[in-house]
Design a protein that fits this description.
homodimer; 212 residues; alpha+beta; 9 helices; 40% helix; globular
């Protein structure tokens, strides 16, 4: 916890973590913005898979990984999607180069023998206890959504996350077999200079940070 | 949505987003790992503030920003914290160079005039409707936790997020005035070569991705 003259020599850290340079921090955080419109440049299925294959590595509770993604690419599917979105989100979602519907899998525990083999009693516990299972699915789904938004940016795209939609209607339309619960829609593409609105304030440290 | 010969010329994108280089992607995602032990190198309060000042910029629903953080630095406070953590998390949390308790603020709506000035009816709505307010606090808190974990890595540290603790007891100990609900504890420091366990599998695309 402290540096002392008696401390053992520290082994060389693994490659990474290393502080990212300012350009990378700007791309991820300090200069990044939610995009409302995009340049007319397609986003390929391979690029969307790469975004997933970045985000998937970030940690979840006991490696649960409950987040799922539906990429809505065809014109027909895009129209069926926006029918259940709020008015202000329809046009930009129809026009976005790519659209991801993020969901959590309420039945994620069926994959526990693969994801979490060391906790052998857990599949049965979650099968019999729906409330903690749905809590884990929902909380870790949102956690992974945070990773996903930053993976979009890390892969060189702008993200436009939106919560204004009828989740139950989208689930009925796209996930009729049940199990997946949509919770965030994310437009993805290359931004232009006029893709962004003014930035809203962030709270001051005195309102959000404490020390003990 | 598609590239056509008739498309208008695209304005130059803003600085960023640009795809990060492979070293940065390794630091954030592909090579990053949850750390269980750390090198004996202190993490300063200024470094912890920088982590916050990265994570705070990533987007939340209508800019709600409900996540709060308690940094537990003193020996006395660290001992009071681990008293409410599961056995397997006590020793590593006592020894970690820095510890962050992530919480969501159930009263985040009191800051809406600052964070979300364009939705003038929302403070009253949330004051009168606790269920959607607590949903927004919880969901966006977990979303911001995803940003926080990646901000720890982007700032050059390793993160050790843990869910094994008695949230109500920690809230009573550290947030006696009410309002903040702890949901994740994150150890922070510089890793050593033996900080990591074996990596657990990630789910295959066929289990997690769909296309429409």
């Amino acid at each position: 916890m402290t540096n002392t003259a008696e401390a053992e020599p520290v082994a060389d850290p693994l490659p990474g973590p290393r502080r990212l340079d300012d350009d990378a921090l700007a791309t991820l955080f300090t200069n990044a913005r939610t995009a409302n419109t995009f340049a007319d440049i397609a986003v390929s299925d391979a690029e969307l898979r790469e975004i997933w294959d970045l985000a998937k590595w970030a940690p979840t509770s006991a490696n649960f990984q409950p987040m799922r993604t539906l990429f809505v690419q065809s014109r027909d599917a895009r129209e069926r999607l926006v029918e259940h979105m709020s008015e202000g989100n329809k046009a930009k979602t129809l026009a976005a180069p790519a659209v991801a519907v993020l969901a959590h899998d309420r039945g994620f525990h069926e994959h526990l023998p693969v994801t979490t083999p060391h906790l052998t009693g857990l599949p049965e516990f979650f099968a019999q206890n729906e409330a903690p299972r749905l809590d884990a699915a929902r909380n870790n789904g949102w956690l992974q959504a945070g990773y996903f938004v930053l993976a979009v940016r890390a892969a060189g795209f702008a993200a436009g996350p939106m919560g204004g939609f009828d989740s139950a209607a989208i689930d009925a339309e796209f996930f009729p077999e049940g199990g997946w619960s949509s919770f965030l829609v994310v437009n993805i593409g290359h931004p232009t200079v006029d893709s962004y609105r003014g930035r809203l304030p962030r709270l001051e440290h005195e309102n959000v940070l404490r020390w003990a």
